[in-house]
Amino acid sequence: MTYTLEPQNKINLKATGNERILQNGRNILSVIIGEVILARGIGINGDIVDSPLNRSAALMDIQTQFKKFEPRLKIHKIAYITDHQRGSLKPIMEVSIVE
């Protein structure tokens, strides 16, 4: 089964099973490295945030983060919603849960 992930700042502390795995993926997309106090390495590289239209750097960063912090999610596709006025990319991912 495939799921769609995008950045989201809403956290369900009672999430379990597949919902918790998917929430972990959304969290990776939602924070910048250094923001999570007890896990300083998790999140998107701040340098990419400062120059967000660099899609290839963002793609590599997201793949690295998922391999390291949530290997239970397999990435099938990463697309971006581009906001040229703000100079930002919003990743939208298609993933599946590795059993």
UniProtKB/TrEMBL annotation:
| Name of the protein this chain belongs to | IraD/Gp25-like domain-containing protein
The taxonomic lineage of its organism, from the top, reads: Bacteria, Fusobacteriati, Fusobacteriota, Fusobacteriia, Fusobacteriales
